[in-house]
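Holo prediction — PMT.
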Amino acid sequence: MFTNRNIVLGVTGSIAAYKAVELASRLTQAGGNVDVVMTKAATEFVTPLTLGSITHRPVHTDMFAPSSDVDMEHIVLAERADLVVVAPATANIIAKLAAGISDDLLCCTVLATRAPLILAPAMNVHMYENAITQDNLAKLRARGFSIVEPAYGPLACGEVGSGRLADIEDILGIIRQVLARGGDLTGKRLVVTAGGTQEPIDPVRYIGNRSSGKMGYALAGAARDRGAEVILIAAPTALPVPVGIEVIQVQTALEMREEVLRAAPRASALIMAAAPADFRPQSSAQSKIKKETAKLVLELVRNPDILSEVGGELVKVGFAAESEDLIPNATQKLHQKRLDLIVANDITAQDSGFAVDTNRVVLIDRWGNVEKLPLLTKLEVAHRVLGKVVELLGKGRTQSIESTNW
Ligand code: PMT
């Protein structure tokens, strides 16, 4: 993920400094070359030894330190950085950066770099909400800094409010998104659907399916990490909302249809990884159906086929959940729904399809090319699918329509 990317991790004097250890570890484990730069105050909360043991690289605390093994280290660090992230970022460092102060190594490094800059503030809620801090953050945003908003919750000072360092997952998501700038989906807007819709029987009961949303969420995250603007239209799932992605929550297939038809005209590509119900109860009861009756008969009616309704110039990708005759059935859907690509998955296999973390798929494009993929993680499948989407976007619709063999 971050192999051979040079990341400067600035750590400042917040109680959340201990969380920088986990962030440094995750970045290092993902292949990043992490150069930690600590303010003096940060060393009151976590030691350079701890961080150095994690990154296996020298930790920089003072540009005047005689032990410094790097001449003009702030310039060297600044120039080789692919990214500078300050986490946690105190009100003090935010104010100094906004004012262009360069009286310590971290400020000098930030001022000297041309790499993208990310701040993850952490502080008392009143300090964070103070107009001065907010003005400083607005000034830095206007200068291109990415700010990972603090989380809401109990604070070390005993208060409750916005000021907790954002979840490490969210910080990593923004890092991936920032490093993805210039990726092969930069400038593209992708609409991805995920999860299984819920078709109400009454206020308590619904007809659902086994989709967990993992495949769709993996596609959305992978597209973000390749530079795309992503709109994720999600049926209910137990998955955390991914950062850096516009998420539109829906429940029923009709709601999903409405959101897909609204978003599709502005999209470069649509990837329907969701499992919208094909049927819904003809009517759903306004109050909970009593269970006195020995039998409950439900009259089901067809839901519209969302993918078939989407027209226009965008690249259309569908998934085929099949339990038999995988390739013939998927190919038929490719043609019926006039898709550019269909991802066929055998949902009867233990390690493939619904709810599991892996998938075994066959990619079939509109020219009849068939690519059987081995068992992969859903993130790996997502990147393979997106590779095909990049190819299809490059081909454009006019060329592909002429040569299609629906
Ligand atoms: O979410 P996970 O637990 O990770 O599981 C992943 C998955 C198995 C749900 C996913 O890989 C998958 O196969 N999604 C498609 C499920 C589905 O509805 O397959 P289908 O063969 O019934 O539909 C074919 C295509 O038409 C799909 O792209 C589907 O989104 C779309 N469709 C289906 C019904 C409907 N009313 N409108 C649609 O547009």
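READOUT: The pocket of PMT is lined by residues 211-216, 253, 272-276, 278, 303, 305-307, 318-321, 333, 345, 347, 353-355 (CB under 6 Å).
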